[in-house]
């Protein structure tokens, strides 16, 4: 796995072992349990922050999975709303586990303008919007600013 992705996996070295939680998620979604799918979910479940497609590809290719299989697994997870895709200003897709169980983002995302770190703000809900005569199929909220580390650096530079 790339160094950046390893730094962003919380407290657990990614080994590719089938994680019980990953298997349970796949079964609940009525998806076939495969080694690629469980490895991909295990990686996303233990990541501190959303991971880029490149970081996911690098981590899983080291285990012998090919790009097409990884891409198809990601698309399957998106379709099943197991993961959600975050599009950042630099047009890089990042992926994270969907905890709310529905299409669209159930929480805002914060992007640091200085270091580029993206965080899911799981404790903050996006307000529901209802428009008469419309069907809202997806919603997202993005926040930009400075993360605590970059804010501290900026204040020290003054």
Sheet-strand content, in percent, reads 5-15%
Radius of gyration computed on alpha carbons: 17 Å
Unreliable spans: 1-17
Any idea of the CATH class? Mainly Alpha
In one word, what is the shape?
A: globular
CATH architecture: Orthogonal Bundle
Please work out how many helical segments DSSP would assign. 6
Terminal CA distance reads 37 Å
Strand order of the largest sheet: 1-3-2
How many beta-strand elements? 6
Averaged pLDDT: 82
Question: Characteristics of this structure?
Answer:
Arc Repressor Mutant, subunit A, 158 residues, three-stranded mixed beta sheet, alpha+beta, 6 helices
Could you outline the blueprint of secondary structure elements for this entry?
Layout: H1 3-7, H2 20-28, H3 35-45, E1 51-52, H4 53-61, H5 67-79, E2 83-87, E3 93-97, E4 109-112, E5 118-120, E6 142-145, H6 148-157
Helix pairs in contact: 2-3
Describe this protein's structure:
There is one protein chain. The protein has one domain (3-157): Winged helix-like DNA-binding domain superfamily/Winged helix DNA-binding domain (Arc Repressor Mutant, subunit A, Orthogonal Bundle), CATH 1.10.10.10. By secondary structure, it is α+β, with helices and mostly antiparallel strands. The chain has helices spanning 3-7, 20-28, 35-45, 53-61, 67-79, 148-157, and strands at residues 51-52, 83-87, 93-97, 109-112, 118-120, 142-145. The longest helix is centred in the middle third of the chain and has 13 residues, at 67-79. It is globular. The strands form two sheets. The chain has a three-stranded antiparallel β-sheet with strand order 1-3-2. A three-stranded mixed β-sheet has the order 5-4-6, with no helix packed on it. A hairpin with a 5-residue loop joins β4 and β5. It is built from six helices and six strands, in the order αααβααβββββα.
